[in-house]
Write a structure and sequence with these properties.
The complex is a heterodimer of chains A (99) and B (151).
Chain A (H helix, E strand, L loop, with lengths): L4 E2 L4 H9 L6 E5 L5 H6 L5 E6 L2 H10 L8 E5 L12 E7 L3
Parallel strand pairs in A: 2-3, 2-5, 3-4
Chain B lengths: L1 H10 E12 L5 E6 L2 E7 L6 H16 L3 E15 L2 H11 L7 H13 L4 E16 L15
Antiparallel strand pairs in B: 1-5, 2-3, 2-5, 4-5
The chains are: A alpha/beta (99), B alpha+beta (151).
Chain lengths: 99, 151
């Protein structure tokens, strides 16, 4: 059922990087789903924590994470209403099709 | 939604950026592509998402009014998804997009177009995405859970 291609034109990543230059910052991705977008922008960041409440989506996200991003991208189960992180920890936060 | 925004503001550093990225409710077009041709099969019915979109807008307005966030830029762009067959597109939308409807006539038309299109054939949904950036204004954001508020 998964689409054979999602945004092969690269519009999403291009806009994201224009609106949110990462400059090696710490990024929180809220509602990461299967992590496709997370892994696309992660090379621009120093560290990424990507959260989603769905265990099955997180399983897919972890399995699709390129080996080169293993130490840089961490997937965790969490909801936006209760983020288990310290105050002021992140430079950037993405709400991606979520809230 | 307001709680999620407040919580996000708490974990952002002062001056940090929040990016809100989501589909615009716009009855996205469904097209069948074959060779160098694209033919329209109709549009999805995503009007069921209107209430969620309005709630998101309201939460963001409140965050700005409360002085948690300052608006910076807004824009929109096209986001396309492709499937090998109209059936797979229908399965995906049904399983993943909540109450978004693929009208029966769109499914029938897409299949008719796919049957006669030049191979390889692809079915495309073209979403319009909104993107907006906000800067977190300085100050402390204690967790709403610890401040005694109820979700």
């Amino acid at each position: 059922m998964t689409p054979t291609q999602r945004d092969p034109e690269g519009n999403e990543l291009r806009h994201l990087l224009r609106y949110a230059p990462m400059d090696g910052g710490r990024v929180l991705d809220i509602g990461c789903g299967d992590g496709l977008l997370t892994c696309r922008f992660a090379p621009q960041a120093a560290a990424v924590v990507a959260v989603d409440p769905s265990v099955s989506e997180l399983r897919e996200a972890r399995s699709g994470r390129p080996r080169a991003l293993t130490g840089r991208v961490h997937f965790a189960a969490a909801r936006g209403q209760a983020l288990p992180f310290a105050e002021g920890h992140f430079d950037l936060a993405f709400f991606t099709s979520s809230f | 939604m307001v709680h999620a925004l407040r919580e996000t503001c708490r974990v952002l550093r002062p001056g940090g950026l929040l990016i809100d990225l989501r589909p615009i409710v716009s009855h996205p077009p469904v097209d069948v592509l074959g060779g160098d041709q694209a033919a329209s099969a109709g549009r999805l019915d995503d009007s069921s998402d209107s209430a969620d979109a309005a709630a998101c807008e309201k939460a963001l307005r409140l965050a700005v009014e409360q002085g948690w966030l300052e608006p910076r830029e807004t824009g929109a762009f096209s986001y396309s998804m492709y499937w090998d067959t109209p059936e797979r597109m229908l399965e995906y939308v049904t399983a993943n997009w909540g109450e978004v409807q693929v009208p029966e006539e769109v499914v029938v038309r897409a299949q008719q177009l796919a049957d006669v299109a030049v191979r390889p054939v692809r079915t495309r949904i073209r979403l319009t995405m909104s993107i907006a950036s906000y800067v977190k204004i300085g100050g402390r954001f204690p967790s709403w859970r610890r401040s005694g508020e109820q979700c």
